[in-house]
Known about the structure:
Largest interface: A-B, 26 and 24 residues
CATH topology of the largest domain in chain B: MetI-like fold
Largest sheet of chain A: 6 strands, mixed
Mean pLDDT of chain A: 88
Number of helices of chain B: 14
CATH superfamily of the largest domain in chain B: MetI-like
Mean pLDDT of chain B: 85
Low-confidence stretches of chain B: none
Number of helices of chain A: 9
Number of domains of chain B: 2
Strand content of chain B: under 5%
Structural class of chain B: mainly alpha
Helix content of chain B: 55-70%
Order of helices and strands of chain A: EEEHEEHEHHHEHEHEEHH
Radius of gyration of chain B: 27 Å
Oligomer: heterodimer
Distance between the termini of chain B: 54 Å
Radius of gyration of chain A: 18 Å
Strand content of chain A: 15-25%
Strand order of the largest sheet of chain A: 6-7-8-3-9-10
Shape of chain A: globular
Number of strands of chain A: 10
Amino acid sequence: xxxxxxxxxxxxxxxxxxxxxxxxxxxxxQFHVLKDINLAVNRGERIVICGPxxxxxxTMIRCxxxxxxxQQGQIIxxxxxxxxxxxxxxxxxxxxxxxxxxxxxxxxLTVLENCCLAPxxxxxxxxxxxxxxxxxxxxxVKIPEQAKKYPGQLSGGQQQRVAIARSLCMNPHVMLFDEPxxxxxxxxxxxxxxxxxxxxxxGMTMLCVTHEMGFAKTVANRVIxxxxxxxxEENEPHEFFNNPQSDRxxxxxxxxxxx
Amino acid sequence: xxxxTPHPDMPPPILNxxxxxxxxxxxxxxxxxxxxxxxxIYLLYLTVPPMISWVFxxxxxxxxxxxxxxxxxxxxxxxxxxxxxxxxxxxxxxxEYWRINLAFGLLIVLAIPLFIKxxxxxxKLAIFILVVYPIITFQLFSGGNFGLTHVETSRWGGxxxxxxxxxxxxxxxxxxxxxxxxxxxxKMPIVKSVSVVFIEFWRGVPLITVLFMxxxxxxxxxxxxxxxxxxxxxxxxxxxxxxAYMAEVVRGGLxxxxxxxxxxxxxxxxxxxxxxxxxxxxxxxxxxxxxxxNTFIALFKDTTLVLIIGxxxxxxxxxxxFADPDWLGYSIEGYVFAASIFWVFCFSMSRYSMSLxxxxxxxxxx
Lengths: 259, 366
């Protein structure tokens, strides 16, 4: 694969940090979901976050574009700190794309309109330009022929690829993936993963919450394992899978890799 | 080697298709259903023929006074014919009827392109109809400018008044209702509580009370000498009252939109108003079209209540007409006429809403 831009294993060595979480805590009512999360993500780095359900992995990446609020600590994206300031939030959201488990395409708009909406209304691009860019990205995810259809007419895998294209149309620096293949039939998982791998090869900074360990092994620079709101272990994939340090990680890996 | 010849298609059993099949599956599918069907047919036999004969066959259509109806056993449509101008235009001066005709004719002409598929700038036209057209209509009705004689609102009446009340009510209550619905779901405590109080207040009082308060009580609270039009007060009352109902209908639609839609809009960097206007409301409103039109129809019929504050809408003016000593005893004709006019308008609204639902359906599962 492409190891040219940022060889794995030395994430903290360069002074190229694009996302930084410092001592982040979050509670849902009494429930302590995130406990002292510290994480720095370099430009072009591809991180896979795994862990049992309820471990806070989705919550963590949803804090990065402020779909969830953190209550303590700092989150800094591209030099902008996320606070209650709406301007900062809008600034970060412009630069950070997100792909959801359930696609969340807009069912009343065609595929092309889904892709053009944010560039036109947020980036203020002229419609023609936005449409041309959208078609380029739809070609990249290999469904330009579906541009005039409505999301309800596409398969799950196609919908997720449209969702990826929709995010890319905003030209984000960072892409967040929240279990992008968990709602898909087995035969559609591959087409979405292929798209993600291609995206990774183009040098995009990616944070993926996923259970696809094959994907982690192929493209990740770093794998992060979370449990009960804490980052238990982080390592480059080869070490992580072959030589897990903590017994919790070992247990998790033994359970998901058995089959 | 044997050659397989496919069997020819045979006709289905005679009792399963065509008229017989339909009768069997819809009217006579079981003994109980057969009995109920026969009973219903008997009831129709009892009521429909006499009705048709009263309304059409034995009715009197020609003539211009009560005497024309003396012999006939059916309806006396002469009554409606003689009074039709009043029913349509109220007490508007006869020489100025053309102004009302022009106003409604203009609306029809302006609305036609909205139904033509290939017409491009529907949005601009709609804005024109909603913003500029009411000003033109007001000028035409009220006069006072451009050499038109001034006609006081107390002389407006009949169907034209009903349509004006309903039109203003509909045009004002939908946007107001949407704003209230968004307010009620807002995270800002003040906006939220103001919306809740407003909605619950207006839903909690009967429309009659609202109209009565607006016409009798309000002037008492206003400083001496300020006087604003009774019709205007009734319009405001109706609009605020219906907007509270509209708000609850719209809120139902907003609640039905999955959280993922809000999140996707936010994640793309759309601001609150943009995500509402472009993503949430188009879907939510489409979901509640039946409820919205239901409210419109209720509003249209509720306009008849303005008669208690002395405005002569269609129903009021018909009632006033059969109080005329010359035409005593023809109230049934009057009510049937009023009912059929109301029915035509309400039924068209209902059909339009159905066609709109069909058109906007994009075949989506999410």
